[in-house]
Amino acid sequence: MKHSLLCSTALIASLTSSFVFSASCPEILNGKQRLLNSNEEIELCEEFQGKTLLIVNTASQCGFTPQFEQLEQLHQTYKDEGFTVVGFPSNDFRQDRGSEEQSAKICYLDYGVTFPMMARASLSGPDANPVFAEIQQQAGIKPKWNFYKFLVSKEGKVIATFPSSTSPTSSTLKNAIEQQL
User: Fold this and answer.
1) Which one is catalytic: 7, 45, 62, 107?
2) CATH code linked to domain 26-180
């Protein structure tokens, strides 16, 4: 009886802590994502909760692909202040063809990206990545092309969107980030 009571108490405590953890996690960060060209998955809430994020849909064969360099500059500038760039490669606009290995080479070797890059995913429709489904729900907008940028507050709310043509190092984008830090 005593053992049964202890097991029941442990189970209730475990369930309660799981519920509290998931209840405190913003919807945009619920779930796991696989890293680009890897079998490793990360728990988004554990990794990014309480940080200001710039979520970017990327493509390795696009005219905007050189923005990886500026995104990395932005990441390096603000990473110690609770900011992270998170890239989500997508072939929705047919600009990220080939293997994930090729996309990873372009990101990591050609442009020196150190910020987290997730596995290739769809941005909209029934197979949309859950992060982008939540972005669309919150912001009422879906990316119209590659390198759309979504600024997400520490509370997990989309607070600003920037089109592909907005340079990651533009004063407009930097000012928006600085206001969140």
Assistant:
1) 62
2) 3.40.30.10
Q: Which residues contact 166 (CB under 8 A, 6 or more apart)?
A: 149, 172, 173
3-class secondary-structure state, position 58: strand
Backbone φ and ψ for 136, nearest 5 degrees, come out as: -65, -40
pLDDT tens digits, one per residue of 39-83: 999 999 999 999 999 999 999 999 999 999 999 999 999 999 999
- As given in the structure block, the two tokens for residue 123 are 């941005």
Examine the residue annotation and report whether 62 is marked as an active-site residue of this protein: yes
Domain definitions of the chain by residue range: 26-180
CA distance 160 to 62: 23
Residue 9 has pLDDT above 50, yes or no: no
pTM (predicted TM-score):
0.84
pLDDT of residue 168 exceeding 90, the answer is: yes
- Helix, strand, coil abundance in the chain, percent, nearest 5: 45, 20, 40
Q: Identify the CA nearest to 67 among candidates 147, 173, 174.
A: 147
